[in-house]
Description:
Elements: H1 6-26, E1 35-37, H2 40-48, H3 50-59, E2 65-66, E3 73-74, H4 85-95, H5 103-119, H6 124-135, H7 138-146, H8 149-169, H9 173-189, H10 193-216, H11 220-240, H12 242-252, H13 280-283, H14 313-316, H15 348-360, H16 364-380, H17 386-395, H18 409-429, H19 433-436, H20 438-457, H21 468-478, H22 482-521, H23 527-546, E4 555-557, H24 569-574, E5 583-586, H25 613-623, H26 629-634, E6 637-642, E7 650-653, E8 661-664, E9 666-670, H27 673-678, E10 688-692, H28 696-699, E11 712-719, E12 722-729, E13 733-740, E14 746-749, E15 752-754, E16 757-759, E17 763-768, E18 771-778, H29 783-807, H30 816-821
Parallel strand pairs: 5-6, 9-10
Antiparallel strand pairs: 1-4, 2-3, 6-7, 8-13, 11-12, 12-18, 13-17, 14-15, 14-18, 16-17
Helix pairs in contact: 1-5, 1-6, 5-6, 5-8, 6-18, 6-23, 7-23, 8-9, 8-10, 9-11, 9-29, 10-16, 11-29, 12-29, 15-18, 15-20, 16-18, 20-22, 21-22, 22-23
Amino acid sequence: MTKLNLKRIWPYLACILIFVGISAAYFLPEIVEGKVLFQGDTQQGIAIGQEAKLFREATGEQTRWTGSLFSGMPTYQMSPYYGIRPVNGFLERAYALFMPSPVSLVFVMMLGFFIFLLVLGVRKDLAVLGAVMYAFSSYFFIIIEAGHIWKYLTLAYIPPTIAGILLAYRGKYLAGCALTAFFAAFQIASNHVQMTYYFLFVILALVIGIFIDAYKKKQLRDFFKASAFLVLAGVLAVAVNGANLYHTYQYSKLTMRGGSELSRTAGASDSSQKNDGLEKEYITQWSYGKAETFSLLVPNMKGGATGPLAKNETAMKKAKPEYREYFGQFNQYWGDQPFTSGPVYVGAFVIFLFVLGIFIVKGWLKWSLVIVTALTILLSWGKNFMVLTDFFIDYIPLYNKFRAVSSILVVAEFCIPVLAILALKKIIEEPQILKSRAKDFYISLALTSGLSLAFALFPSLFNSFLSEQEAANYLPQAAQQPQLMGLIDNLIDARESIFTADAWRSFFIIAVGAVILFLYSKGKMKAGLMVVLVGVLTLGDLWSVDKRYLNASNFVPKRQLSNPFQMSPADKEILKDTDIHYRVLNLAVNTFNDPTTSYYHKSIGGYHAAKLQRYQDLIDRHMSGNLNPAVINMLNGKYLIVPGENGQPQAQLNPDALGNAWFVKNIDWVNSPDEEINALNSVNPATTAIIDKRFEKTLNGFTPNGTDSTATIRLTKYEPNQLVYTASATKAELAVFSEIYYPGWKATIDGKEAEIIRTDYVLRALVIPAGTHEIEFSFHPASIAITDTISYIAMVLILLAAIGAILLGLGICRCKKCCKKA
């Protein structure tokens, strides 16, 4: 058994302290001053989660439903919280040394990649350098600034997950299984399935490479044995997150990810389709441009982040006095995406090392990394390379469930620094390789530094400096208006200066790095010093680019976030209403892409990337463009917020809102979803319920026969997961409720379960017997308790495996037999 001693532990502790120091230094002095990040998506999360938060504080109960956006929807994808979450949360905080965010975020990103490189057999100082390369890639800091924390954490836990896989295939079955299960559980808990899915391409490529290597060496028995352990690890990781995964799966089938039931001939929008999955145009809306891919090498290849050109100091130096006032109307980004928070930049010298690694590193691992990098770059082009994109959307399972294909570049951000470090590893092990493979060295230099130089010297050969839309709009006009052409020429000069400044920057960074390698190959410095100098160069390069997108301006005093949404006069006016439940339609904002209304009100609109598909259909057909008043009325839209003359939104009472529930006189039976949604154009929901004939058996022959003028139904209790009504009528009535139909809701009449009918495409209905009755709707899925129990059992098994591996003395493998297999 291997004994752990201080001499063995201290080097690893020193590396961890370096990570702590770098992570904290980036956010100084803001964290010392007690400031916090103001993150756009985090603020959105606060808005849509406010109702659930207040309910939890009042009752101690976690609601699985909220009425605060889109007239009601499950909370499964809104910071999902299940029984295992406190355990996971404690373990995650312990792994991050209980440091505050965002310091902890950068730390875990570096630590995870460090673990991965150690398992690859990389020396510790190189592993530290690789961790810096990976963690400081610009996209990661951009998503911190945006508040995409779950995405970030998923990406942080992926490298150590892959480390466990490699460890298992080296014969360290228990340690590999424990490491894989542990970090895969964290990764899945971070709840960003898209990032996990993309990295399956990396894992698949590595496993194929390992299989081929095992086949050649006649070690297939070991391969399949390790695979069995890894399957077990995967099962345990999935089981730990069983509650989240199961309910997300059930929910996804009814969301935009599951596709619409409407046919195109019936007018389904481009955001929905009859078959399974998202619409291609929606999937590829954010597609990386082919030329924009060079942002991996030159960050401002297309101008950086979306924003006014007038805020760019480099551009404004080129602005002529007569045109300066117009520069605020132009964007400093001129790429193919609708807008962007910044480029994917992995470091100029890192790209050089990656290219050099293609030439000098040998083995299946290199080819796996290169192939996956190339594939994901091509896939990131999306609509700019539809031959491949069409194939993946049509034939690769689950690929059509995710949008923003440009984000697949996170895979390249992983693979590029791995091969870069393997190249440095090769150079350290064989210092003469730069002399013996001088041709490869200079080719790599030409392909990176030489290309950067060409960008700087001949920018117009590689960039138009106008977006496609700008070229289409302005150039025809400029041909007939000479004064406009002068402005366009100056705009091009300003953007060209942004591009060339970064091209020169990349050229010099690579040149300095090449000199360091050259001096090392000549014996002018030792390996340790070379690694330190490359580390300083790389960190300085990435740090300065990251500061463009995440800096002191993104921090605010903590007190500023105590009430992140200022209450408008319209909000104040509406909140005077003492009714326990009504809805608000805010037309003063981007109604169906803005969540802020949900902070104070139960909103008909809102923002969520995975809303219910039937509700999206309703938006597309009846609430976008020409607003259908009948639909707003049946959703109990009691108030509208509209733009005011003085710029302040104003509240308007809608006297026609139908309230929380009402009795109808008639049923309009329909044969399909198309007929069902189209009927809302002609049927008055106040008197007639539109019901699919699939619910005929549920009504058991009941037919409304007019209404009792004395009949009443009113809401007496509202909680997001429980609604109680009292109804009184002299005969049986069909009641329609202004609540969204969703499987999982249970209804009782005087304590006896009643079957809910879907009506008016999205609402609920019940047949209420004659007399006075109490009706209750509740949303407490029984599956929560079952899946939570499974999660606890799985986590105990993972912890036992981890403890067993530690007790057996299984640390990082350093033996020649295992390292050869790498």
